[in-house]
Amino acid sequence: MTNVLSDAPVTSLRQRMIEDMNMRRFTRKTQFDYVRHVARFATYLGRPPDTATVEELRQFQVEQREAGIGIPTMNSIVSALRFFFTHTIDRPDLSRKLYTVKNPRSLPIVLSREEVVLLLGATNCLKHKAALSVAYGAGLRAAEVTMLKVRDVDSKRMLLRVERGKGGRYRNALLPADLLALLREWWTVGRKQGVMHADGWLFPGMHYLKPLSTRQLHRIVVDAAEAAGIKKRVGPHTLRHSFATHLLEDGVDIRIIQALLGHANLETTAFYTTVATRTVRAVISPLDKLTTLLEAQVAPPG
Fold this sequence. Notes:
Blueprint: H1 12-23, H2 28-45, H3 54-66, H4 71-88, H5 92-95, H6 113-121, H7 126-137, H8 142-146, E1 153-154, E2 159-162, E3 171-174, H9 177-193, H10 214-228, H11 236-249, H12 254-261, H13 266-270, H14 277-282, H15 286-298
Antiparallel strand pairs: 1-2, 2-3
Helix pairs in contact: 2-4, 6-10, 7-9, 7-11
Family: Belongs to the 'phage' integrase family.
InterPro entries: DNA_brk_join_enz (IPR011010), Integrase-like_cat_sf (IPR013762), Integrase_catalytic (IPR002104), Integrase_recombinase_N (IPR010998), Integrase_SAM-like_N (IPR004107), Tyrosine_recombinase_XerCD (IPR050090)
Domain Tyr recombinase: 106-285
């Protein structure tokens, strides 16, 4: 895959946009996507994007829609162009002509606790098992798992430090005792293999100086699910969904779950109530209470 942040010719506009994103602590993935989307618009124009007109912006969106570009991708393109026009070239008048489309949110796929046990048990590689256990045990996003460093494991406070998560936010995540024991086991094995270093990545990739990629992590989850006989379509985010849903079913306050997940809005976390089946089953329907009242009314006097 071409690295648009380093491999493409660095124009003054591109460099300025990258600097603006660095100032706001955007993740590398966000920067990659934003630069790529603006480059897509420049290709459409056939000239630098700062020369675009309102009509060209409108026509670009129309043509992207007609080309069958998905709603999430189109909204991501709009976000990138808004950033470019508002912050990089100071043309907020153009950014106001960009429109996002509401994307109907589908129910997240959640594994049962038994399925999580099967998934983790199907991984023969200790590093892979530890990475998937972090995704589920701490509820981290794929990129947050892969970017963990050894120093982010705080065994004294039983926390995982997540640096520059989504939106560039920092937070503390759970570090369960069983997960800490597994990570210590991986540390011992990794040191013997020569891939683990005190200042290095918690989950090194093919080379110890580079972290495991999110694509590799996704492949690990898919392979484990297949080996475990799980038919659901799963990925790293499935483990995060399962973490949140299982906490909700256990009665953990939703605002605590919001903080653990790093959600900016409570509404995002509340969406898990739609798949928390144990919570739903625990609710007593008003109809059941009516039935109880009716039975009491018709019961013969004692």
